[in-house]
Amino acid sequence: MRAASLVIDRRQANRLLLDVVQSAFRLSRKQALTALRDGRVRISGQPCTEPERRVKIGQHIQLDAKPKKKAEATHGIIIRHVDDAIVVVQKPAGMTTVRHADEVEAMGKRAHRFLPPTLVDLLPAALASAGQPVKGRIRAVHRIDRETSGLVVLARTSEAERNLGQQFRAHTTGRRYLALVRGQAKAQRIESTFVPDRGDGRRGSAPGPGVRGQHAITHVRVLDTFGDFSLVECELETGRTHQVRIHLGEAGTPLCGERVYDRPLHGKPIPDASGAKRPMLHAAYLALDHPTTGERLEWHAEMPADMKKLLKEMKK
Q1: How far apart are CA 29 and CA 18, in angstroms?
Q2: Other CB atoms within 10 A of residue 3 CB
Q3: Crossing angle, helix 29-37 and helix 17-24, to 10 degrees?
Q4: Are strands 46-47 and 41-43 parallel, antiparallel or unpaired?
Q5: What is the mean pLDDT of residues 267-293?
Q6: Residues of the chain above pLDDT 90, percent
Q7: Mean pLDDT of 296-316
Q8: How far apart are the C-alpha atoms of 309 and 290, rounded to whole Å?
Q9: What global pTM score does this model have?
Q10: CA-to-CA distance for 23 and 12, rounded, in angstroms?
Q11: In the Cβ-directed half-sphere of 49, how many Cα atoms lie within 13 Å?
């Protein structure tokens, strides 16, 4: 099949990209999904892997003839979106997003040599392997924990960095996490004030009213329960460090694999029979306004293999 393209007209406007690719290029649904996941579909020249993205009138949709190298690159990084302003990737568990300032200050130039490479360190090679050479510095505007997998956006310009930073500070971005937890979780809105020491040496919620700290709000939705475990979705209204881990742990349903925030204040660790090798947390949804165009963009990332495997075992 040769490369093919079309320009979205009024009849096709606002349809799902998957539907447009399937019908316009005469593909089966499976073929259309594969083309999207392989990075063969472009919108106005930029690869797009989002089947559920709505197309707009006048957009140029292109289907490449031959599958390009898959977006999966160095150390399991998956590139989901790239343009002149931003990069959106799926980070694997076990990789730090960006070097912490304290590590750089403590080790200086040796930090790069002796510490494991971060997402920011590895991303230029990943972009180059996907045919998107880096121009300038990659800037981290938010981070997810080292052992958390999922979606991260990074800026390619100082203007994009400022714009995205404002969105995260104003809490206008959309972020949802999938979590496997111990116990029978319940749907709830959790609101608290985070302090460096909640009273037992752990970072967490202040035990009394009127304490100054970081305001944190998490919305918990139960997706499934099975025996002594639950699958939940956590939507962040604020974005504090370890917010989901802390709120779930203090609610009595810590993450499977959690070893720090696995108990209520002054309580004992809640038993974990899951066998999880890491905290089972995945950044599954990200939405933001593009810093240049203002268009609202969103991405979904399915569970990683280790989390799927554990979920399957739990359901048995």
Answers
A1: 8
A2: 11
A3: 120
A4: antiparallel
A5: 95
A6: 67
A7: 93
A8: 35
A9: 0.76
A10: 10
A11: 21
